[in-house]
Every structure is written in C-alpha cells, then in structure tokens.
Amino acid sequence: MPDSTKPLIKITNLSKTFTVSKNIFGQATKKLRAVSGINLDIIAGEILCVVGESGCGKSTLARLVLNLIKPDSGSVEFMGQNIFSLKAKDLIQARQNMQMVFQNPFSSLDPRYKIFDTIAEPLKIHRKNLTKAEIQKKVFELLKEVELDESIADKYPHQCSGGQNQRVSIARALALDPKFIIADEAVSALDVSIQYKILELFKRIQKEKNISFLFIAHNLGVVKQIADRVAVMYLGEIVELGRTKDVFEKPLHPYTKALISSAPVPDPHQRDRPKFFLQGELPKPTEIPSGCAFHSRCPIVQEKCLTAGPALEAKSPDHLASCFFV
After folding, report:
1. Which residues contact 198 (CB under 8 A, 6 or more apart)?
2. DSSP bridge pairs for 11
3. Residue-wise pLDDT tens digits, 229-261
4. Phi, psi of 17 (to 5 degrees)
5. Of 56, 76, 210, 264, which has the most beta carbons under 10 Å away?
6. Are 13 and 76 in contact (CB under 8 A)?
7. Which of 256, 97, 120, 113 is nearest to 181 (CA)?
8. Rounded to the nearest 10 degrees, how much is the dihedral formed by the CA atoms of 184, 187, 189, 191?
C-alpha cells in the first residue's frame, strides 16, 4: 500500500452543476448536479478507483481534476498548487504531469496519424530540445514499455486491434513521464481477455514508475483486481471510501452493499450469499431528493434520512461512509 502521508492530489469541497434549461431572459430554470462537495486525497503511487452507476458524476470528476472544466466551488491541489488558479503557462507545465487514457481507443486516436506520430506528438510539443533520433528512440522505448513490437509504429489505428490501440494510448500518456494518470473506463470497450492484460499493464506501470492512477469504472470485477482504494459515488457524492479489501469484504453503505450484491459471482460456493436489493428507480440528477440523496432507494431508510444529509465520516480506521445507520 502506498504511503498515506503523501497525497499527490488533494480535492476539497469540489462541486459542479450544469444548466439544463433557461428562460427567455437567459436565467437557469433547471440545473443538473453532477458533483457535490467532494473531498478526496489521491496518494502518491496508488490506484484509486471511483465506481458507481452511469450518470453518478465519475467522468465529470475526472474532467474537473484535470481542469478541463471549471467547478462551481472547491479546489484541486496538485503537488501543492491549486490548478484552478494557475496561469495558462503554468497549467500547461502542470498538465505534463497529468495525463488521461480514454474509454474508446479508436475515437481517442487521430486516424490520420501513424502510431509513431501519435506517441511522438507530445514529445515534439513539450520536449523541443530532442533530436529526431532521440524522439525515435523514446517512441520505441515506450512501445516496448507497453509490450508492443516496433513494427506497429508504421501502422494506422484502423490497422490495429482495440487492445493494441489502448496500449498505444497508454504509451502516449507515458511519453512525458507523468506523475498522475486518469483512466476513464479504459478497459470497458475491450474484450474480457484483453481487459485482464491491460489491467496487468497498469499495475506494472504503477509499481515500476510510482505513478498515481484515478481509475474510473463501473465493473466491480475490474475494480477488485486493480484498486488499492475504492471510492463509491452516488448522484455526485462519495458515499463510501476505503481500502479495496475492506470495501468488498465489509461494505458499510447500503448502496455499496447493493452494488456488490448485484455483481456476478464466478465461485458457485459463494452464490448463496445474502442479497441486498435497492428500491425504486435512480432519481434524475435534476431532481435529487432532499436529505440523504439515497433515501428514495434505501432499504433501511428512516425518518431522519428524509431531512438530513449524512456526512462522509470514518466508521473504522481508513474506512469512511455517509450513512446514519451503518
């Protein structure tokens, strides 16, 4: 487990809403709450997985952390600097240490670029002192790093498989030797057999280069395999946070219990485990219930939950949950 005394990224009270509709005067009449009051540290050298249903705010959180969109409130400190207060030149410098691997490798790679040019592009932009020979050497080293043959450098993305293209995306992200990578559903578009190999590649890179990962996923099997810690999101809020083993073996929040209960179990001897089912439908992000946002689906809801929103608090060492009745 990485050193918990060294947070690389510190997220404080981060919130973001989007305007869905406006009146004739241009005033917002309906807003969508994507992220609400997120407090989270990402430790140097760890893989932190954010998990939750589609629409819970995972990708918005990722875009906020990279300053691709501005928050309504809150801050993201990267290596001690609030990225939202950086000037353009300083932000460009900071982003060399913050990279992203996207969900679909076919749409995230330029189809007009050969694989060599795709990986070389960040080097040409940010390492202008490198010669052509040095860039070529670096590109071939990166291909070897992600377990691809040098011959692929002369191909276009459409001539490669999904797994090969995702490895190219990882090589491009590694080109500038970053300290932090966001992987947004980075294996969900791949076949299951390829997913395992890509996950093993991420874990090897983490250990060898001490890179921190924010890994966004909805597949609990993927999360259990790769994560050091897990943050569970529901309607823009983190409802549980803890070490992977603790979250999977002793889930605290009712929503986490329901997610784990609904996941397929490969071991037939464990299929008779107790089930934990949710009530009702997922509320619209534009119509979030008062009090605890989860109360409309919670099987243990009580009157207090209808009016008061529980804070994310430690219920045991290094294990937090936002529920009054854990």
Report:
1. 163, 166, 167, 170, 186, 187, 190
2. 40, 76
3. 999 999 999 999 999 999 999 999 999 998 888
4. -120, 155
5. 56
6. no
7. 97
8. 180
- Please provide the DSSP assignment of 227-292 as one string: -SEEEEEETTEEEEEEEHHHHHHS--SHHHHHHHHHS--S-GGGTTSPP----S-PPPTTSPPSSS
**Residue among 138, 143, 169, 163 nearest 154 (CA):** 143
- 0.70 surpassed by pTM: yes
**Three-state SS at 193:** helix
Which amino acid type is present at position 221? G
**Cβ–Cβ under 8 Å, residues 98 and 180:** yes
| Reported confidence tier of residue 276, pLDDT bands at 50, 70, 90 | low
Name every residue whose Cβ is closer than 8 Å to that of residue 216 and which is 6 or more positions away in sequence: 49, 50, 51, 58, 59, 61, 62, 182, 183, 184, 185
Angle between helices 132-145 and 162-174 (to 10 degrees): 130
Domains of the chain: 7-97+178-321 (3.40.50.300)
* Identity of residue 255: Y
